[in-house]
Write a structure and sequence with these properties.
The chain is of the alpha/beta class. The chain contains 7 helices and 5 strands; from the N terminus they run H-E-E-H-H-E-H-E-H-E-H-H. It has helices spanning 2-13, 37-40, 47-55, 74-82, 100-105, 116-128, 130-136, and strands spanning 20-25, 28-34, 64-68, 87-90, 109-112. Strands 2-1-3-4-5 form a 5-stranded mixed β-sheet. Strand 3, helix 4 (74-82) and strand 4 (87-90) form a beta-alpha-beta unit.
């Protein structure tokens, strides 16, 4: 999770939304990514999507684990389900409840660590840039 948090902080330092993700296979990180919607003017480049894009063609994702600083939205959750990623570990779901039940209903194990560091990072961002956050979650 530390590497995902570093990715979230990187996004924030670039003027983006502080959400980071890493993909782990055989206990090693095979890909990293962060939300780049602002930086690249790309509405679907969430942290998990960037991470998967950076992984390239992995073949089978059935033995991977996705770590994300925030509970995935339905778009990212749909990709997780589509690729049959069996486990997602998230930093928090307090600021955004996301698509936990959707993933679980498709057999994905979801572990929410409820990390204060992740909660605080998102709460500060949302308070500072509510319009950008609302755009990200489709609530404008």
């Amino acid at each position: 999770m530390k590497a995902a948090i570093e990715q979230a902080q990187k996004s924030l330092s670039e003027g983006g939304i502080p959400i980071g993700a890493v993909l782990v296979q055989d206990h090693r990180i095979i890909s990293r990514g962060h939300n780049k919607r602002v930086q690249e003017q790309n509405p679907i480049l969430h942290g998990e999507m960037d991470c998967l894009n950076n992984a390239g063609r992995v073949g089978s994702y059935k033995d991977t684990v996705m770590y994300s600083t925030l509970m995935p939205c339905y778009m990212c959750a749909g990709t997780i389900v589509q690729f049959k990623i069996p486990k997602v570990i998230v930093g928090e779901s307090v600021t955004f409840s996301g698509a936990r039940h959707f993933m679980e209903s498709h057999g994905v194990e979801v572990i929410d660590l409820s990390l204060s560091e992740c909660i605080q990072m998102m709460e500060e961002f949302i308070a500072d840039k509510p319009e950008l956050w609302n755009e990200d979650i489709g609530e404008l």
